[in-house]
């Protein structure tokens, strides 16, 4: 497949598939004697796009530069902004010919989306406030049109082929392992995305309002949001008793804002996310949250499942390890643990499985993980 740059002008229908999409945001001249900067931007994009496949460039100007449908124009721009993998803000502001007042509003709506780049000539006035927020949110900036185009295409890289409703998932979500895992399972069931809208994103966490064609039911379900975060590793540390009910389980207590417990804390198994494989993450999280350093060979795998399948796509990799009396005594007498500089404070506590159940000490997901590991050999 040859590289292709397809320009879609205002009110024109986007194509059904592409590898990447860019929206050219910024001031639009209204007077016929004031030239637009967008044709030059398109040419610079054409010169740089060498990837096999299609790059769509949304240009919010009519081919004949007429504006006859204000509401339709606004709706088209909103739709295509959400379709774009990168929104290129180029703001050659001129207070007489291109004051860029609408651009200020668009920038305020998209500056923290994670998919914008910002550029402006050094002499362009009234951009200091916009540049302030670009710096605050880590937005790539440039002082030339070629520089801002390059910044956008660098982030797009090779793009990724998407068709139909898949186009509505921007690359910054599409490329995450969590999205890929979720969508591959949906496709394995012959389900297809018919639409999506990013409703929330922060760091490695994201939320998508999705419309999914459910093949087995012959319908499209469009009233749910899929949330996700990186998969976690969770570890059951236990001192065996005569029965599972008498087995002592190590928990960590930590203040977490969503907790609706009497003490405002969550009580859970040591665990969390990490950059390595699930086993190495499990060992690292145990050391971080309890102070206990384990040989990886001591951990037994119990599989992987979603934690809350009606809400979040992320999964938990469950491990367990039998510990000695000395190790149990050692972790009980230490704390706080965690990444203290980042606000994470964990305190070790221990209770029998029966005590955990009677006191409703843990949530249902944690209770299930404990039961799965304790009863695995029985």
UniProtKB/TrEMBL annotation:
InterPro entries noted in UniProt: Nuc_deoxyri_tr2 (IPR039470), NUDIX_hydrolase-like_dom_sf (IPR015797)
Keywords: Transferase
GO molecular function, one term: transferase activity
Pfam families given in the database record: Nuc_deoxyri_tr2
Top-level taxonomic group: Bacteria
Name of the protein in question: Nucleoside 2-deoxyribosyltransferase-like protein
